[in-house]
Amino acid sequence: MQDLKPIRVFLEVAAQSSFAGAARTLRMTPASVTRIVARLEEDLGQQLLLRTTRQVSLTSAGAVVAARYTPILREFDRATQDITRANRPDRGKLKISAPLSFGMRVLPELVDSFCLAYPSISLDVQMTDRLIDIVEEGPDLSIRISRPPTDKSTIWRKICQIPRYAVAAPDLFNRVPRPKSPEDLNAEHCLSYATSGEAEEWNFSQNGARRSVRAGTHILSNNGDFLGNLVRSGLGIAVLPEFIVASDLAQGRVERVLPDWQVDPLWLTLFYPPYEQLPPMVATFTDFFEAYLRQSDGMDFGAG
């Protein structure tokens, strides 16, 4: 905004204690910088800077002006950026939160393809297996893999189901009995995906029958890849998403336990802050994300 230019110029001179340095940063001539600051001082009726042959420093009035205007200008620039970004579907910066295992396994190729399609959108991808508070922590959207959402304070969009399997290394059953039904599962041999320190509940179904089993507490973790490594080493049984165990199943490093029973799938969802309407750039990523996964293997887009 043109009316803010004198303030910007003054603050840059104050920050660098130099008219020449400010001129270089702002790509202006030193004479223009001097003239703009002098006009600002005239408009405000205050001397803002002390000029000597050796340095430039703030007067007491200049210090007050700098202290008052710096946060205002910072907030103005942030608001302008948000408004500009919200109205441009193909340009800007998008902050995304994603679960770690999914992020490491699926997002690199997806992000590579997205950046080829939208080179003017920069991405800030932060990964955590913790379910973040999207309102408090401020991403533009969050990728979640979880049970069906119950959070009513946010907006979410179901992308697909994530199949899960109970798996174990084949040689585990050289040491422990092979379960024939969910009731046969021994909690001591069941590794829990957990974030709260409590054992995980596994829900199985078969021909309309349902069974719930409480896994063990001997080993708990909030990371599926870590549990997958323990399963491969023969330490126990875990229920894990297909995208984590697909390769191990194909190579015979692990096998399905109770293959005639289905484990309740998880939902892959996109969570958003409580927008009245999705910002165009967020909608752009959402559409790309869903289209990309529809072309990928291992994702269940059924309505179940």
Report the end-to-end length measured between terminal Cα atoms: 52 Å
Question: Roughly what fraction of the amino acids lie in strands?
Answer: 15-25%
> What's the tally of helices?
10
Strand order of the largest sheet: 4-3-5-15-6
What string gives the helices and strands in order?
HHHEEHEHHEHEEEEEEEHEHEEEH
Mean pLDDT: 89
Total strands: 15
For the largest beta-sheet, the strand count, sense and barrel status come to: 5 strands, mixed
Shape: elongated
What is this structure's SSE topology?
Layout: H1 5-16, H2 19-26, H3 30-44, E1 49-51, E2 56-58, H4 60-86, E3 92-98, H5 100-105, H6 107-117, E4 121-127, H7 134-137, E5 141-146, E6 155-162, E7 164-168, E8 192-193, E9 201-206, E10 209-214, E11 220-221, H8 224-232, E12 238-241, H9 242-251, E13 255-256, E14 262-263, E15 266-272, H10 280-294
Parallel strand pairs: 3-4, 3-5, 8-11
Antiparallel strand pairs: 1-2, 5-15, 6-15, 7-12, 7-13, 9-10, 9-14
Helix pairs in contact: 1-2, 1-3, 1-4, 2-3
Please provide a written account of the structure.
The chain is α+β, with helices and mostly antiparallel strands and 304 residues long. The protein is built from ten helices and 15 strands. The protein has helices at 5-16, 19-26, 30-44, 60-86, 100-105, 107-117, 134-137, 224-232, 242-251, 280-294, and strands at residues 49-51, 56-58, 92-98, 121-127, 141-146, 155-162, 164-168, 192-193, 201-206, 209-214, 220-221, 238-241, 255-256, 262-263, 266-272. The strands form five sheets. It has a five-stranded mixed β-sheet with strand order 4-3-5-15-6. A three-stranded antiparallel β-sheet has the order 12-7-13, with helices on one face. Strands 10-9-14 form a three-stranded antiparallel β-sheet, with no helix packed on it. A hairpin with a 2-residue loop joins strand 9 (201-206) and strand 10 (209-214). Helix 1 (5-16) packs across helix 2 and helix 1 (5-16) crosses helix 3 (30-44). The longest helix is centred in the first third of the chain and has 27 residues, at 60-86. The chain is elongated. The two termini are 52 Å apart.
